[in-house]
């Protein structure tokens, strides 16, 4: 075990696999909180399973779990297979040029296509289009910028100040993009009566029954839709 400080907060880092297993499984109820402050109105997309405290994490997990059952995953197999066919065609095209292949970038593009198809119900074309907007935004999530670093520092070390200043800081391009994708996809399915039994359909169901969204962070996405 290693002890460190995050600002003035003492943090214990576990290195023993058995202790880590106990924390994540056997004694998870005692370690469920993530230790992060959630700024709901400033960062609507921060309210996800990896960040929420136990009080809101558990009901959100219950609502989203039906999306990831074995039956749902089997229904997505045809979508994954279609993306795999596109991957094969893309690899054959690269092989014909007899050029080096960047495997990390290749798998990232394939994964982007699968996520876009299975989760959002859209074709991202990350493999066929080098300038795919979905892929570009996916890279930006992990690409540090001075704005993102400023936000992180303020959030971690001056949360009270960030709570006030956060309303002034512009919403990130990534946040705007993914909120727009979700909203536009939901609107399109509503107008055309499309049902795919995927993540977006789960959000549509929650939208139709607001009482199911009590204390669920995903509700903020629908609040933003009305502005």
Automatic annotation (TrEMBL):
- Record keywords, A-Z: Endoplasmic reticulum, Heme, Iron, Membrane, Metal-binding, Microsome, Monooxygenase, Oxidoreductase
How does the protein's chain sit in the membrane according to the entry?
A: Peripheral membrane protein
List the InterPro entries hit by this protein, alphabetically. Answer: Cyt_P450, Cyt_P450_E_grp-II, Cyt_P450_sf, Insect_CytP450_Detox
Task: Indicate where this protein is primarily found.
Answer: endoplasmic reticulum
Per the record, its GO cellular-component terms are:
endoplasmic reticulum membrane
Compartments, as annotated in UniProt:
Endoplasmic reticulum membrane; Microsome membrane
Q: Is Transmembrane helix given among the entry's keywords?
A: no
**Molecular functions (GO terms):** heme binding; iron ion binding; monooxygenase activity; oxidoreductase activity, acting on paired donors, with incorporation or reduction of molecular oxygen
The cofactors named for this UniProt entry are: heme
Claim: DNA repair is one of the keywords in the record: no
Q: Name one Pfam family in it.
A: p450
Q: Please give the family membership noted in the entry.
A: Belongs to the cytochrome P450 family.
The entry's protein name is: Cytochrome P450
């Amino acid at each position: 075990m290693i002890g460190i400080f995050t600002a003035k907060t003492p943090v214990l880092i576990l290195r023993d696999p058995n202790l880590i297993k106990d924390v994540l499984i056997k004694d998870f109820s005692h370690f469920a909180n993530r230790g992060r402050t959630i700024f709901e109105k400033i960062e609507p997309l921060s309210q996800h399973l990896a960040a929420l405290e136990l009080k809101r994490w558990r009901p959100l997990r219950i609502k989203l779990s039906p999306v990831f059952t074995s039956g749902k995953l089997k229904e997505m197999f045809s979508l994954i297979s279609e993306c795999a066919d596109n991957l094969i065609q893309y690899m054959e095209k690269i092989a014909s040029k007899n050029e080096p292949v960047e495997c990390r970038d290749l798998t990232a593009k394939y994964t982007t296509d699968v996520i876009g198809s299975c989760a959002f119900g859209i074709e991202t074309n990350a493999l066929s289009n080098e300038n795919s907007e979905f892929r570009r935004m996916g890279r930006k999530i992990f690409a540090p910028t001075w704005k993102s670093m400023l936000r992180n520092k303020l959030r971690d070390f001056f949360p009270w100040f960030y709570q006030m200043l956060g309303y002034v800081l512009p919403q990130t391009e990534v946040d705007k993009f993914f909120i727009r994708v979700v909203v536009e996809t939901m609107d399109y399915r509503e107008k055309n009566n499309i049902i795919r039994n995927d993540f977006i359909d789960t959000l549509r169901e929650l939208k139709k029954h607001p009482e199911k969204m009590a204390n669920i962070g995903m509700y903020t996405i629908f609040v933003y839709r009305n502005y």
